[in-house]
Design a protein that fits this description.
The structure is a single chain. By secondary structure, the protein is α+β, with helices and mostly antiparallel strands. It folds into three domains: about 70 residues; about 60 residues, no CATH class; about 120 residues, Beta-Lactamase (2-Layer Sandwich). It has seven helices and five strands; from the N terminus they run H-H-H-H-E-E-H-E-E-E-H-H. A five-stranded antiparallel β-sheet has the order 2-1-5-4-3. The longest helix is centred in the N-terminal third of the chain and has 77 residues. It starts with a helix and ends in a 7-residue tail after the last helix. The mean pLDDT is about 75. It comes from Nonlabens ulvanivorans. This is OmpA/MotB.
Length: about 280
């Protein structure tokens, strides 16, 4: 074999390797391009389906997961009453403190406004009462403002502490938090004193007394401001009993809207015997 033939053979071998390598790279690039094109075509078909499924899932979350979440919360509150009290007490304490401060400010404004209303019929009666009794007008005003009044009512499921319905004269802090807190305190006190056959009946906090009236499936927590005597407490218990009978008769425990409409109608019209 001549030198030219050897050189031609070597060139053929080298060029063949280069061509095969180039063809291999080209093939891989073509495969990648096809995958990308196929992925784009697939995305156009699949994306609407995925979006529809996600929309349906989001829409049905309350219905599908709501009962499971509610049941989990019931179990958690029931098994961790002490932890619930410890976690919520500082937060709720600050909220209540702020609320009480605001109420004292409102009371002061009401006293000043009423005292300036001298020439009304109520003002004349108050002045005559002050003259004959020797009690200052401001003290009489505060006494009148101190009449017992139902500020808030909570219908709370026993054991779980879940809020079933509520009534309030003005906006308040998180009602679900309050109902859970009341149930935790109630359970803690009853367990601490080992009185399984007795129920906690009231909780006093500064200007308010929270009266607890127990029934079979739930209890009614009534927050009362002003002077709340034993006579008025008996009146409230009788009133709560009437409300409970109406709730049971109309099967309102499963209808929060109807229940709260009843609470609004009954408790907004409640007047104690000394008023």
């Amino acid at each position: 074999m001549t030198e030219d033939e050897k050189l031609a053979l070597l060139k053929t071998i080298l060029l063949t390797d280069d061509r095969e390598y180039a063809e291999s790279i080209t093939h891989k690039i073509n495969v990648l391009e096809e995958i990308l094109r196929e992925r784009h075509r697939l995305s156009e078909k699949v994306s609407p389906i995925i979006k529809e499924q996600l929309d349906d899932f989001t829409k049905n979350i309350p219905q599908n997961l709501g009962p499971a979440i509610t049941e989990s919360l019931k179990i958690q509150i029931e098994n961790s009453k002490d932890e619930v009290v410890e976690a919520l007490y500082p937060i709720l304490g600050k909220m209540i403190k702020k609320y009480i401060s605001q109420e004292i400010k409102v009371l002061s404004e009401q006293v000043n406004k009423t005292a300036k209303d001298t020439f009304s019929m109520q003002g004349i009666k108050r002045k005559m009462k002050s003259i004959f009794t020797g009690v200052s007008e401001n003290e009489i005003i505060i006494s009148d403002l101190g009449n017992a009044k139902v500020e808030q009512v909570f219908i709370i499921e026993k054991g779980s502490g879940i809020l079933i319905g509520s009534f309030h004269l003005k906006e308040t802090v998180d009602e679900d938090m309050i109902s859970g807190m009341l149930t935790a305190i109630k359970g803690f006190v009853e367990d601490a004193f080992k009185q399984s056959n007795h129920d906690l009946q009231s909780i006093e906090y500064d200007l308010y007394e929270i009266h607890l009236h127990n029934f079979h499936k739930y209890y009614i927590a009534t927050a009362v401001s002003g002077t709340f005597t034993e006579t008025l407490e008996n009146e409230l218990e009788n009133f709560n009993l009437e409300v409970s009978q109406e709730i049971n008769k109309k099967n309102l425990l499963d209808s929060r809207e109807a229940l709260e409409e009843l609470l609004l109608t009954r408790y907004s019209a409640l007047k104690f015997s000394n008023q």
